[in-house]
TrEMBL record:
GO terms, biological process: protein catabolic process
UniProt keyword annotations, A-Z: Acyltransferase, Cytoplasm, Transferase
Leading EC class: transferase
Family per record: Belongs to the L/F-transferase family.
The organism's place on the tree of life at top rank: Bacteria
One Gene Ontology term, aspect cellular component: cytoplasm
Reaction equations catalysed: N-terminal L-lysyl-[protein] + L-leucyl-tRNA(Leu) = N-terminal L-leucyl-L-lysyl-[protein] + tRNA(Leu) + H(+); L-phenylalanyl-tRNA(Phe) + an N-terminal L-alpha-aminoacyl-[protein] = an N-terminal L-phenylalanyl-L-alpha-aminoacyl-[protein] + tRNA(Phe); N-terminal L-arginyl-[protein] + L-leucyl-tRNA(Leu) = N-terminal L-leucyl-L-arginyl-[protein] + tRNA(Leu) + H(+)
Gene3D superfamilies, A to Z: Leucyl/phenylalanyl-tRNA-protein transferase, C-terminal domain (3.40.630.70)
Protein name (database record): Leucyl/phenylalanyl-tRNA--protein transferase
One term of GO molecular function: leucyl-tRNA--protein transferase activity
Function: Functions in the N-end rule pathway of protein degradation where it conjugates Leu, Phe and, less efficiently, Met from aminoacyl-tRNAs to the N-termini of proteins containing an N-terminal arginine or lysine.
Amino acid sequence: MDKLTADDLIYGYINGIFPMADSDGTLYWYAPDPRAIIPIHTYEPAKSLRPVLNRNQFEIRIDTAFTEVMQCCSKPRSDDDSIWISSEIINAYTELHHMGLAHSVETYIDNQLVGGLYGVALGSAFFGESMFHHVSNASKVAFHHLILILRQQQFTLLDTQFINDNVRRYGAIEIPKADYLKQLKLALRHKVRFVEPVGNEQ
C-alpha cells in the first residue's frame, strides 16, 4: 500500500474499518467484532466530574490544535503501552482535518493545552480515535463537551472501536459487527455538522 491518505481513511470508515500502526510503522486495518460504541443519549458524567464542570476549570476549544492533540495522543502513557499513532497516520488525519472531516476537542488552562481528543465525523457518525491528558480530568471534560456537540447536532453513532476500561467509564458497550454496520449505514445517510453547541447545557 502506498502512503496513507485522507481518501483511504474515508473509504475505510464508511466500510467499518480503521488503521493502526505497528511499532515499526507498518499499517494494519481493523474491523473488530464485536465493536465498541458509546450510546450518545445514555452517557452521564460521573458524579466526581460535576464539580469540575461547574468550576469551569478548563477552557474548551474546538479544532484549534488538531495536529498537536494527535501528537500528544501518540505518546506512550506507560512503559508497556504500545504506540499505534505513527507520523504517517498523523499526516493523513491532519489532511482529513483540513478537509473538515476530522476534529479535535481541546482543554486548556492558562492558554496551555492540557488535554483533548480527536476523531472523524462522517454523516451523523463520529469515530472517536484517542484522547490524552496532562492534568487530571482534562480528557474527561473534553469528552463531556464532545457529547454536548454530538447531542445538539443530532449525531446518531459514536464509535469507540475496542472495549477497554477507559471507554467503559463513559458508558461504552459492545455490539455485534453486523449491528454496527447497520447503524453505520444509517448514520452515513444522515448529514449533520460538527460545530460548537449553543447554550450552557451540562
